[in-house]
């Protein structure tokens, strides 16, 4: 009953089963945090680690994370790799095509502040946080799959704490 | 013809249009005048002793003092390699296209214009290739290039 323990619920036995009273916000957030479908968006070497995390050794599926090839079906965009100035409008476009609630993970040094391309580079966007709002930053060059999973687990915690009214304000 | 016979052959048969440069490398490096470029390249390709049919590389150089375009070519049938360069006028760098001779030069020359700002005359298709569509910050591979968000590596 690990699931029930994490949710604020009141249960009472009734003939033929049990009556459960709970909080809509908690149930919604629980569902959202456990089915983060992410957009396939690998632009550089971080994508190799992302693929590794998605494969059987680390297995993203056990967090309920399945890759989607369409932004319409995705909840999360893992920006895995260098974002060039030419790619930046495409990233924004893909983000805009996702339905809310939507989240962004900036994976690796390039997406945080340009990484190894901070100096002497005319083509690399120095951080994606002025293109799309970023929820979680994962440092590393590239981050190991463990770091990526840790970041995703942190994102799940963020999602579990969010308020329903938050989305109306946005 | 072997690679060793190549340099004397080029010096004897190209009316002095190919000047051998001292680079210390095994493959010979020649200099060509900008006006002779098209005739020399066409002859390198069509000469039955040479048959340079493959453009390996085409790149720009900005040393800070002068501007150059470097070509590397190879012959797949005669197993020869050679490089040659064209030194450009710094005030008005422009060069003839060699796309009619080696079609592989098409994209290289588009890149050359975008990144170095060398005008490529008579090029068949001069659309932007690499930089963003709304790029208006000049030619970033030039030594004196600068932009508001361009950060140079500090001296260590």
In brief, what are we looking at here?
Chain A is of the alpha/beta class. Chain A has helices at 2-6, 24-33, 46-54, 88-97, 109-113, 145-161, 165-169, and strands at residues 9-14, 17-22, 38-39, 67-68, 76-80, 103-107, 136-138. In chain A, the strands form 2 sheets. A 5-stranded parallel sheet of chain A has the order 4-3-5-6-7. A two-stranded antiparallel sheet of chain A has the order 1-2.
Rg from alpha-carbon coordinates of chain B: 17 Å
The total of beta strands of chain B comes to: 7
What structural class do helix, strand and pairing data of chain B support?
A: alpha/beta
Number of strands of chain A: 7
Query: What is the strand arrangement across the widest sheet of chain B?
Result: 1-2-5-4-3
Average pLDDT score of chain B? 89
Kindly report how far apart the N and C termini of chain B lie: 50 Å
Q: Which structural class is indicated by helix and strand composition of chain A?
A: alpha/beta
Gyration radius of chain A (Cα, Å) is 18 Å
Overall, the morphology of chain A is elongated
User: What helical percentage do the residues of chain A reach?
Assistant: 25-40%
Q: What oligomeric state best describes the polypeptide chains here? A: heterodimer
Strand-residue fraction of chain A? Answer: 15-25%
- Count of DSSP H/I helices of chain B: 3
Low-pLDDT windows of residues of chain B: none
Largest interface, by Cβ-Cβ below 8 angstroms: which chains and how many residues each? Answer: A-B, 10 and 14 residues
Proportion of strand residues of chain B: 25-35%
Please trace the helix and strand order of chain A, writing H or E for each element. HEEHEHEEHEHEHH
